[in-house]
Amino acid sequence: MANSLRMTLAITLFLSFACGAASAASKNSTPQGASGEVAATENYVGPTILNGGFETWSEGDKKAPDGWALMGTGATIEKKSSTHKEGTYSAKLRRHGATCYLFQDIQNAGGHNLAFWKGRTISYGVWIYAGQASNARIYCQDGVKNIGYNFHSGNRGWEYVEATGTVSNNADRVLIILQLDIDDTAAYFDGVTVRV
Ligand SMILES: [Ca+2]
pTM of the predicted model, to two decimals? Predict the structure, then answer.
């Protein structure tokens, strides 16, 4: 009986050690999938926004790009290659009579959910080309409040406009919003990023 007990203990200890070693190995490596994508690990956050570079327009060149929604009476959106900052295309947003918005709820981007974002401080930004000050901006709305914003200076050039904020603990959305406020103008947007 005593020998049997000792054997069971030895096997248990061996298994715990082996599992611990395997666990430690997985934490310290970044395994590559067949497609070359980095598999999820403890420290890997994954994509935080979809089509942030406005390269994909499955619905057409004058419909909201994939992952994004357009809102605002009279607003137009257009895929543009003539003026872009990254990749091949940008999104040209034009206001006509009412404040307009191009927005994306990023709560499920990269397989995340609201729990991932709540209480998390994020930095987000976008390249904007605009010709009027205090008109084109980026901000984040979490259903409780706006968490940060920033405007383009209006200098008729590309500027990286960014802001930082902390998502509310009772947030019910995480909207990244590109907006044209006040005047009927147009602006180009490209390369939206969200860092956590
Ligand atoms: Ca682009």
Answer: 0.78
